[in-house]
Amino acid sequence: MKIRIILLAISLLSLMGCTIPTGFRLQNLTDRIIPLKITFQKPYKEFISGEGIEFYSSNEITIAKNLRNRRNSVKLDFIKIDEKNFIINLPPKSTTEIEKTKNFNYNIDKIEIEGKQRNLGELIANSNMKRDNYIYRIIY
What we know:
By secondary structure, the chain is an alpha+beta fold. The chain has two helices and eleven strands; from the N terminus they run H-E-E-E-E-E-E-E-E-E-H-E-E. Strand 8 and strand 9 form a beta hairpin.
């Protein structure tokens, strides 16, 4: 009986420590470039390690697990307004990773798409879930 309790406790503790890599992506289903203004909740240096913030895009509509390692992915140029705000252009017919995090703990505050602001809750509510990633589709 004690062994079962110990095994159960170990199992529960190991499950509590699990992290799931999750991402938030935008798919531009149109034939034109879509400008975005991304606002994060806090300065990017507080949640991104290494050289700094990067946005990767694939020149196809995809649900691939890792856009950074795909053969046809490119690192997008962006304009840094300040430590929380960035402007990028989504290529036509593309999938772009806006944020990669753990356990759906996103730092996105809002995204302005062609002049219309959408907060994170609205974006997620209108997104599809594929392979631990939320994917918001721009179709207009």
